[in-house]
Amino acid sequence: MTTVTTTNAAIQAGVTVDTIRTWCRTGAVAAVKQAGRWAIDAASLAYRVKLPTLLRKTPKPVKLTAEMIVALGGRRWQKNGMDRIYLNDWAQFAGLDVAYYGTGNVSGVTLGGRAIANSRAARLLNAIDKVWFDTADSKLHARHYDADALEVRYLDGVRDTINLLARTFAGIKTAAATL
């Protein structure tokens, strides 16, 4: 049995020495006390360090259905053998919170709680024309204009590049998963 000290164990695990001592006392790692010091089994420590990764569950992919999209506010359109459900308020799924004046012009937009200049916000809102779910292939589709790499300038001066289309689709899937 290869052993390590509490200091070396703390370095390997990326935790404090006190945490290592707690693991030893509670049996989270195999260890014995020798001359007042913990001798920690290296294999047990390695397993304990890897444990959160082993326990982490990957979320199951969401299988979208027409009923889910309708429940999210989609409007069904059927014509010439096509069956689509349009999501007219796609911006909410992308994380955009939009406020309008009575005239219909944008009065304020936030993305993830951070304010965006109105002129930049209008560009974001015009980047995606339509978002729909096609019942023939059970997939989301969009008509967009370079929505996969848009520069965002927040009012606090920070600039960022976002994939608005990916944010929108991910938001729809997340909302559908909560139904």
What secondary-structure arrangement, pairings included, does this model have?
Blueprint: E1 3-4, H1 6-13, H2 17-26, E2 31-34, E3 37-41, H3 42-55, H4 66-71, E4 75-79, E5 82-86, H5 90-93, E6 96-100, E7 106-111, E8 114-116, H6 118-127, E9 128-134, E10 139-144, E11 150-153, E12 159-162, H7 164-177
Antiparallel strand pairs: 1-3, 2-3, 4-5, 5-9, 6-7, 7-8, 9-10, 11-12
Structure characterization notes:
With 179 residues, this protein is α+β, with helices and mostly antiparallel strands. Helix content is 37%, strand content 31%. The protein has helices spanning 6-13, 17-26, 42-55, 66-71, 90-93, 118-127, 164-177, and strands spanning 3-4, 31-34, 37-41, 75-79, 82-86, 96-100, 106-111, 114-116, 128-134, 139-144, 150-153, 159-162. Strands 4-5-9-10 form a 4-stranded antiparallel β-sheet. A 3-stranded antiparallel β-sheet has the order 1-3-2. The radius of gyration is 26 Å and the shape is elongated.
